[in-house]
Amino acid sequence: MNTNELKYLIEKYNNQTTTPEEKKLVEEWYDRIDGANLEQNSLEDAKVKQQILSRVTAGIQNIPGPKAKRIRLNYGLFFKAAAILIALIGGTYIYFSQTNSSRIQTATVKTNKRTIVPGGNNAVLLLADGSQIILNNTSDGQVASQSGVQVIKTKSGELLYRFTGNATAKAAAINTVSTPRGGQYHLILVDGTEVWLNASSSVKFPTAFVGNERRVEVTGEVYFEVAKNKTKPFIVHTDQSDIRVLGTHFNVNTYADEEYERTTLLEGSVEIKRGAKKALLKPGQQASLNAKSDGIKINEIEDLSEVIAWKNGYFQFEKSDLPSVMRQVSRWYDAEVIYNGKIPAKQLSGKAQRNVSIEKLVEMLAWNGIRCKVEYNQITINPK
């Protein structure tokens, strides 16, 4: 069967228009190759690629609860054949089917007593007196009271700062909320500003904003929705810059293992200051700073949802190289990533929930030609 015949039959299979004989032929072909590496660009039909991508996305999103079992049976090979066809016609697409493929899992995953699991709400609150509160082990309600400000853990798991009755606090205590690898957290500062922390991140802030500015310090990746106050600007300090806003939504990525510190603006306006240099961001723009130079580079961002996907509970990539994808995976699953040999030159695109199991994650990577082995807290990427 040549590539044109294969493309034609897979299209018919995905559309469920094959004859019984054609259906059998496709399934026999699939069983023979069973995830084998296929050369990219052997079929170069971008229109078919986009059609298959659309059907994969629609198939995943439209699986209803009551009939899920029946649809899983009907669509299992559809997802895999579609993924293989996409690989054939160039590019890579991240997908998660609703089926269990034991063949892939047993071929690519070796697990033991220690299981790698997705991250979750997990953070530590450091109070001004040096005491620590592990938030995921703390009951709902008031967890501390400092300088006229209550610290409350809400039923939904947020950390809320609020005044105890006075209009202002006489003095402010300095607190820090930090997340470990495999952790995230959401807190609301006393002025109403909302802060979301990604894994391995921190925010240092006063319990009350006294004076003529609101200043916090961050590490890792943090998303802000700043409460508006025209008379008191909100300043975010990082290792490389000061970000000055009045009221806006923006994301700051300052991980030490990333090449650039990036500030992305979703709403309002942001001023980036680095030494004597300044730059003003508009919504949809991103400022990139490199420790090796003193410049500020401004880029337009086509899809802002990719930048804040982590905050909304997703992995989302668009033509991202494998190391950048695996850095996110490593932080969220608290797993070490090891490359056994040359790093595969792959570009990944797609979207998946961050609560997916490590088995499903490895299955996804396997169907995109990336072979993994999972042992203890390590994910090893093997050559083809």
From TrEMBL:
InterPro entries: FecR (IPR006860), FecR_C (IPR032508), Ferrdict_sens_TM (IPR012373)
All copies of domain Protein FecR C-terminal, residue ranges: 314-381
Transmembrane segments: 77-96
Claim: Transmembrane helix is one of the keywords in the record: yes
Thylakoid is among the record's keywords: no
Pfam families assigned: FecR (PF04773), FecR_C (PF16344)
GO molecular function: sigma factor antagonist activity
Domain FecR protein: 176-271
Keywords for this protein: Membrane, Transmembrane, Transmembrane helix
Protein name, UniProt field: Iron dicitrate transport regulator FecR
Record lineage: Bacteria, Pseudomonadati, Bacteroidota, Sphingobacteriia, Sphingobacteriales
